[in-house]
Amino acid sequence: MSERLDLLNMAWEAWRFRRGDGPAIADRQQIRLDELVHHARTASPYYRHLYRNVPSGPVDVRSLPVTAKRELMGHFDDWVTDPDITIETLRRDFLADPALAGAPYLGRYHVVTTSGTTGDPAVIVHDARSWALLSLVGRRGEWHTVTTRHVLGGMARRGLRVAALFVGGGHFGAAAALESARRRNPSFAKRFRVFSVLRPIAALVAELNDFQPTVLEGYPSALTLLAAEQRAGRLCIRPVLAITAGEELTAPAGADIESTFDDCVVQNRYGSAEFVALGAQCSAGLFHINSDWFLFEPVDEHYRPVAPGAISHTVLVTNLANRVQPLIRYDLGDRVEPATSPCPCGNGLPGITVQGRAGDLLTFASPEGESVWVLPLALGTVVEETAGVRRFQVIRTQPQTVTVRLECEPDADPVGVRRAVDARLREFFRSQGVAPVDVRHAAEPPSVDAKSGKFRQVWSATSE
């Protein structure tokens, strides 16, 4: 099947199965899993070795070994199925240049980096079919939330203008996806803009007032902050759709965004750089997994399936589309709770609630004593992008104090890395209009949260 015909067929099935179809989806899952495993063990040296004891024939996904980010990244060149891709050349010739964000790599692949929310940033390569899921099954949630009234009353009259508030200036998943859309549609390039959350809030407000977006995309913490700026009268925009992703969107936060931006619908998505369109949240509050293209296994600490209503230790996810970098039974690290009964919204796709992924909005004092809000993902990126940092955590321990936990790369000089982190944090706080912040380093390394089991990167340990 030609690539064009294959994508047309995917588009048809994305519409056909938008509300689920258990037996038909199960059949497609099995066919796609069998084909994926056969391809992986044929074209990927890593999987060929990993599956050396897996019998041929129809695949029982539960019989396959679990894979994890750190292990896969350690065998990157053997993991990918295209020998033209190596991690050295990819980093040197592509990822090192922020201007190439969203550009096709080797003319046919889409490359993004993870934000490291589970502690280990990764480089993810998507082929055409895997990337197409972003616009096909990834848009399902919008089909029932954006009404004709919103389209005619907002976008048609004022035009489609999408403002994406994510970490910019690199190849991070969400920002790179928007840049990719801009490159593919030059006529819409001026209508799609990435606004980096690393910028001071005053600068973001000024730029958004000038751009006047009709659609907002971004982290819930970023959109919550914009809502506060709108209520204060500094921001004056009228979006009709707000799409959130990357962090937990609480019900109060969603209601706050909708009520502040009058007549604005909030759509909450669930996904990652590895799995670009896992699902979207419905009106009943459940995330519905796009199970026609993703095998989604909520499991306990021994990788055994958990019962509906039980909170998983993690989830194992298989991307049934990606052939260039197979992700099979990949430990995503999220804790989820499978629904115990059919969703009242009528969507038959599997429903879950997601635990965690929340980020604290941090507040510090300006030199004049005023409060300055700082986005957690913006602060985290400053540390994460410091050379030599492998894992980190930043905790606000006092009103003007942050404590940093660092794990350095094996070949890095820990003293030099700490100094670089200190310098970058001081410059970041200065650029945000924050009075000097005391940066301290903890003796203990980064660790998972004892209660949630999640690896939190940035949070506040004080309410002051």
UniProtKB/TrEMBL annotation:
**Keywords of this entry:** Ligase
In terms of domain of life, where is this protein from? Bacteria
Q: Does the keyword Iron-sulfur apply?
A: no
Q: Which InterPro entries match?
A: ANL_N_sf, CapK_Type1_Caps_Biosynth
Any GO molecular function: ligase activity
Q: Which PANTHER family match?
A: CAPSULAR POLYSACCHARIDE BIOSYNTHESIS PROTEIN
Q: What is the name listed in the Swiss-Prot or TrEMBL entry for this protein?
A: Phenylacetate-coenzyme A ligase
Organism this protein belongs to = Mycolicibacterium psychrotolerans
